[in-house]
Amino acid sequence: MQQLIEARLARFQAAEDPLVRTLADVEGAVPQALLEKLAGCQPAAVLLGLIERDTGLNVLFTQRSPHLSAHAGQVSFPGGRLEASDAGPVEAALREAAEEIGLQPASVRVVGRLNSFQTVTGFLINPVVGFIDAAFQACPDAAEVEAVFEVPLSFLLDPKNVSVGYRERMGVRFRIYEFHYEGRHIWGATASILMNFKDVINR
After folding, report:
1. Where are the domains of the chain?
2. Of 144, 160, 190, 161, whose CA–CA distance to 48 is shortest?
3. In Å, how far are 51, 102, 154 from 133, measured between CA atoms?
4. Whole-number pLDDT of residue 69
């Protein structure tokens, strides 16, 4: 599976403007206030980390602290905003993973990128894909991360395990994807990134 993922990511070409994809999930007319919000998105990066286990590949997730100002308590990938000192999304994703869960860059083999994703909360997320050393032991920063957990990639790739729902933000109804695994609810930008990853792998 690792070779397949690397081969597919090596051939991957980014799709259209992320704004187009975001608006494709909007039902009805798009208000001007939403367009203005999306126009000012701040660049961010996340690490979609894959770990080889005896049962196959797992995907690494974090449960964000309930005290954070943005996306509190939600399931996400390690990541955060790009800083001026970051050379780009890859460096930002690895830096944030080190800060949030103690994952050192030397323990990650980056193999590619996915489509950028805009959120209505004001971020332009750049997903980075990498394989994590199986010996890695998470050491989460309690101020940012409540828990670190893994989900089998086979579960996430199975169409039976994803559902479509709807959420309202800024007076607009958005289509979202959702996964439920052992009491964890994976949705929003994280689930959309997983869907893009599935499309790349299955292409």
Report:
1. 2-202
2. 190
3. 7, 13, 19
4. 57
Question: What confidence tens digit (pLDDT) does each residue in 14-68 have?
Answer: 776 888 888 888 888 888 888 888 888 899 999 999 999 999 999 999 998 867 6
Contact call for residues 97 and 108 (beta carbons, < 8 A): yes
Rounded to whole angstroms, the Cα distance separating 198 from 203 reads 8
Three-state secondary structure call for residue 26: strand
- Top-level CATH class of 2-202? alpha beta
pTM greater than 0.90 (yes/no): yes
Which position has the token pair 């979202």? 176
Percent of the chain with pLDDT over 90: 70
What does 36-101 look like in DSSP terms, one character per residue?
A: HHHHTPEEEEEEEEEEEETTEEEEEEEEE-TT-SSSTT-EE-SEEEPPTT-SSHHHHHHHHHHHHH
Q: How many residues in the chain? A: 203
Q: Could you tell me which of 25, 30, 5, 41 has the C-alpha nearest to residue 125?
A: 41
pLDDT at 203: 77
Instruction: Check: CB of residue 165 under 8 Å from CB of residue 176.
Output: yes
Greatest CA separation for the chain: 50
Q: Is 52 exposed, middle or buried, given 0-12, 13-18 or 19+ CB atoms closer than 10 A? A: middle
Amino acid identity, position 167: R
Percent residues over pLDDT 70 in the chain: 97
Query: Six-digit token pair at 61?
Result: 């997730």
